[in-house]
């Protein structure tokens, strides 16, 4: 593998070029062009911000200002998004493939190490299973012999000494293959296989927003257009309050 310092320098070179190119990018968002637009639109903005809406005539004037300003906002935002999108597509198109190659290499290493560690753990579990099975058999034999001896002693015979001692359980641990593996830990995870079987303490009740939205739309359709915002709304869902929302459409 190449020296890590060389790789870091190569990345730094790309960043330095990007920083050096910033003055040229001024053409994409020219301060002078922005200032010209600022000066052009300022009178309308200042007039709009100073509006008073206390009667129907003033409401119509406010509406006209909204209709006049909205297209400028949309065009300006569309332009900003277009510039950002073009830059992003160019930069990402050149840098992301190398990033993906690096990530793929790390993912490959991780997958192979995880498979190896899983194999070690499975082997340890199998050894533990076999040991526990042998212990179970030994314990059963001990209990059988002890029962026979207890019966013999109860009948007046002398206790025998060759009854085996109980076997202690041995905890088998998966070996650690390298020092790097000291960073590996295990944690318990879960997968819900039957949600209906979960106890109440393990279930979170959340609003069904799709159903609530469907109910609100259906309720909206029951009110005549001339009565919207005027008539009281039926409150037919416990725990929910339905209200009117005023929506403005410009242009």
Record the SSE blueprint.
Layout: H1 4-20, H2 22-25, H3 31-49, H4 56-154, H5 209-221
Task: Give structural notes.
There is one protein chain. With 251 residues, this protein is an all-alpha fold. The protein contains five helices and no strands. The protein has helices spanning 4-20, 22-25, 31-49, 56-154, 209-221. The longest helix is centred in the middle third of the chain and has 99 residues, at 56-154. It starts with a helix and ends in a 30-residue tail after the last helix. The mean pLDDT is 81.
Question: What brief labels describe this structure?
Answer:
5 helices; 251 residues; mainly alpha
Number of helices: 5
| Rg from alpha-carbon coordinates | 38 Å
Q: How can the largest sheet be summarized?
A: none
Could you say which structural class the secondary elements and strand pairing correspond to? mainly alpha
First-to-last CA distance: 61 Å
Order of helices and strands: HHHHH
What is the share of helical residues?
Answer: 55-70%
Number of DSSP-assigned strands:
0
Outline type: flat
Name the poorly predicted regions: none
Content of β-strand: under 5%
Nearest-integer average pLDDT: 81
């Amino acid at each position: 593998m190449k020296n890590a310092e060389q790789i870091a320098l190569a990345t730094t070179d790309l960043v330095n070029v990007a920083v050096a190119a910033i003055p040229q990018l001024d053409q994409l968002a020219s301060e002078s062009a922005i200032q010209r637009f600022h000066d052009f639109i300022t009178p309308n903005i200042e007039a709009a911000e100073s509006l008073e809406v206390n009667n129907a005539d003033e409401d119509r004037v406010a509406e006209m200002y909204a209709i006049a300003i909205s297209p400028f906002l949309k065009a300006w935002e569309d332009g900003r998004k277009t510039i950002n999108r073009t830059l992003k597509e160019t930069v990402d198109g050149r840098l992301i493939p190398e990033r993906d190659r690096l990530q793929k290499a790390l993912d490959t290493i991780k997958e192979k190490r995880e498979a190896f560690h899983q194999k070690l753990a499975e082997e340890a579990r199998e050894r533990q299973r076999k040991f526990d099975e042998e212990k179970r058999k030994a314990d059963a034999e001990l209990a059988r012999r002890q029962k026979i001896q207890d019966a013999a002693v109860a009948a007046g015979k002398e206790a025998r000494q060759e009854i085996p001692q109980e076997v202690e359980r041995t905890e088998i641990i998966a070996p650690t293959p390298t020092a790097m593996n000291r960073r590996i830990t295990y944690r318990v995870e879960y997968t819900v296989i039957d949600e209906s079987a979960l106890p109440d303490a393990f279930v979170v009740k959340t609003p069904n927003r799709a159903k609530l939205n469907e109910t609100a739309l259906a309720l909206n359709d029951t009110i005549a257009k001339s009565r919207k915002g005027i008539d009281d709304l039926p409150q037919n869902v416990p725990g929910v309050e339905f209200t009117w929302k005023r929506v403005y459409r410009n242009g």
